[in-house]
Amino acid sequence: MRPLKLTMTAFGPYKDTEVIDFSELKEHRLFVVSGNTGAGKTSIFDAICFALYGDASGEDRNDNKMLRSHFADDQVHTSVDLEFELKGRTYRVFRQLAHKKAKNISATGDSYELYEISSGQAVPIVDRFIVSQVDEKIRGLIGLTKEQFSQIVMLPQGEFRKLLTSETENKEEILRRIFKTGLYKQVTDHLNEQRKDMQQICSEQAKMLEYHIGNVKGALGGREVSDLYKVFEQENYNTYQVLEALDKEIEYYTVQLKEKKLLLQAEMAKFQEHTAVYHQAQAVNVQFDLLDQKSEVKQQLVAQEDVIKQQTVQLSLAEQAVHLQVYEQHNIEMTDELIRKSELLEAALTECLQAETALNTAIALYKQEEGKEELRNQSLRELDRLQGYLPSVKEIDQRQQRVTKLTIEVDTLSKQLNGSIVELEKKQSDRLSKAAQVKELEDKVLHLPAKTEKLSQLRQQAVTMKEYLGLLDKLTIEQAEERENKGSFEQADQAYSAIEERWIEGQAGLLASHLHDGELCPVCGSLDHPQKAAATGDIPTKEELERMRKEKSLFEKKHLEVKAKLTTTEQQIKEKQQQLLELGYPLERIQSVYADLQIEGKALVEEEKQLKEDNSMLAPLKQSLDTLDSKLEEIRKQKEHTLYLFNSKNTEYVTEKALFDQSLSSLPEEVRSLGKLEQHIKSAEVNNRQLESAWKQAQSQYQEANERNIKASASRVNAENGKSEATTNKDKALQSYLGALEQAGFASEESYKAAKMSNSAQTELKSQIEMHKASLASVTKQIEELSFTLAGKERQDLAILQKLLDNLEQSIDIVRAESIQAGTNFDKGSEFKANILEAERSCQEAEREYQVVKDLYDVVRGENSSKISFERYLQIEFLDKIIHNANHRLQKMSGGQYYLVRSDRMEKRGKQSGLGFDVYDNYTGQLRDVKTLSGGEKFNASLCLALGMADVIQAYDGGVSLETMFIDEGFGSLDEESLNKAIDTLIDLQQSGRMIGVISHVQELKSAIPAILEVKKTREGYSYTNFFVS
């Protein structure tokens, strides 16, 4: 991933929109981000990280609300727009934070967009612009998570040295995030959950076994002489001891159960024998009780003899009175008949009077209605006349309904037709307006390609001019620097030549002082030395000479470097001059020409921008015009169809209206309405029905009154005859009744009535008399039989016999309870034994399974001598590769003094180990902890680790392209030599194709790196940026 352009709006210290165009770096891939503390250098890295991952680069800035600029206007949203290149393709990502404006209730405006720039067009590469899809696509493109990005691409403050100096657990978390080994931790956690579950099952199974043993102790452990009791009395006992004692206890209750069953059978036989004796004695006592009861009953029956005799006489009189009841009943019936006939006669006389009155009234009404014959005929004729109009009026009414319906339809179609005409005219006007707009925009847009081409040429020319002017400024600076360095070099050279000459002369004097005649000269070989060099007093030392030589070499090197730079710049100026002359620009007025070109370029940019906006409006406008044409055609068709329907319905309306008016004129005024005609017919029908009903009612009333009068006269005659006959019959019945009483011997009717008795009373009295006789005979016979049966027997004492039975029954209950208890204990013992065996088997099975899971868990969690988990074992493999790659650079940066070694030492308090670092010092030949390194050494080691990690990740995932690195820490802690080596490492990385951005205040770093992104604060407090490329 290589950033191309970064646009920040209301972000951090940047109040408005700040654009950082990385293309200004040109061929430089290494640049320094410089500025005062708090100016916003780190905010640039935060913006890149926020654009890609939605978060800032450092963990201490993980709240996105902190990213909004305090200087920003309330209406401006915080956003970052990043264009970047990846694997030869260009992408653009845009993120905008939601912002709660002053008068709003909630935050709004959040936005997430991702495009690929192809042929100058931004093409969305996600289905929907939502944060989840954008994040997922970014991770897929870059191939790195935010954690990986922060560890190997963007190295923020406070995060850089964590991998080097943090504890093993922190390193483990870092490596887990980067190399995604969290899956193996999840496996460990899952196994731990399984282990806990199995441990819980084992505990539950052990509790269940303990519970079953407790049941044995509670139910069967109370017999003090038993082995089971002795086992439970021990402080510690095992399952085997319990089962062995339980088997003996079961055997004991088996014997007990057999013995109790035999004893129970013997007791039951004895009880049955005594029960039979008790029942025999009880039967004798019952017979004695019965004899006493029968004797008492006989005495009561004998005492009732006088009453029975009186009842016998009463029954005889009642039987004689039965024969007189026929005469008595006949006399009563004849008396009742006479009364009834008298009442009938009275009713017949009253009916005769009423019937005669009703007949006279009916005759008068009949004559009255009979006189209305002509009125009835007239009413019937009127009804026939009105009903004759009914078919015609119904037809006219139907015609009127059709006319009304057609009137509504014609009015509706007329309104629709007028609406279509108005809408058509409006749409035609709109179309003319839009067509004019399209024509105007098309005429304008015709100039867009030429404007774009011209703008591109102007930009290229402006870039060439800007570069030329920059080179002129650079030339002036470099010429001054060259003159200054040349003077310094010449001074140093003269000083060195002088001191060198003095040193040589001094050396000749020293050599001459050691020459003697006859000895060979070490220079010329002569044996004679006529003019020896004289020794001088101020001879420089060799160290002073060497120091001056180095100083001269240093000035010479610096002069040559500056001269080389000057030569390069002069060559570049010549190239740019040639390009400008080819473009036709005068070099002597290039400054003013550049200013004019900028003004012209800005004007062209505005024109191109306006034309592009017009071009973007053109397609929707054309589409709108096409839509309007389709709508116009649709409205025209609708209008024609409505006009056709209107003409058809209007013709039909005119025809129906004429027929309706013609039919209506042929009828009288009062019957032209169907409703009025039906009302007249209804009134005529009611009047006719009333007249006919009154006539029929008068006829019926007369006929009924006449028939009633005839019947009443006949009923009166019959009633008079009936009463006369009833009187005769009454007198005869009375004479017969009195004669029968006298013949039966009753002195009076009162004595007869006293002797009368109902049939049921006679039957009951007769039954009582017979029952008394039968009961007396029966009880006498029973007394004789019982006396014979009990001869020679006496009453028995049942209480003594019952007490004996109770004692036997109590003994049986005790033996039965003991037998049941023995059986229960036997069943419990057998059940408890089965439960204990099953619980012990389950407990052992659970323990075996638990041990398997626990052993596996101990393996993967690192419960071993090295305290290395399975996840950490895999992380160690990655870490070894990182260290291997890091050491290539660290040995070079440290001058071969250091290389990193993964530490195998155990952590304190038995913590897991394996991810620690030691450093091997070649100067001392010893290993020591990396925490003993100086700040600068730690920075070098951390940088090498980050680079090594980048190499491993790129090799681990071939889809990851690591073309950029940003560093926000550490260079201030390096000495001059270490800084130079660090710079060499960064230059090597740059030469391998990576873009390297460094935040630093170190002046030497800024001087050594030709590209600087300067971040400055305004007086108001917000910041802005500028690129300076030398």
From TrEMBL:
Annotated coiled-coil segments of the chain: 396-444, 559-614, 674-708, 791-856
Keywords: Coiled coil
Gene Ontology molecular function, alphabetical: ATP hydrolysis activity
InterPro entries tied to this protein: P-loop_NTPase, Rad50/SbcC_AAA
SUPFAM superfamilies, sorted: P-loop containing nucleoside triphosphate hydrolases (SSF52540)
Gene Ontology biological process terms, A to Z: double-strand break repair
Pfam families associated with the record: AAA_23, SbcC_Walker_B
Residues covered by the Rad50/SbcC-type AAA domain: 5-201
Subunit composition and interactions: Heterodimer of SbcC and SbcD.
Family the UniProt entry places it in: Belongs to the SMC family. SbcC subfamily.
The protein, known as: Nuclease SbcCD subunit C
Lineage: Bacteria, Bacillati, Bacillota, Bacilli, Bacillales
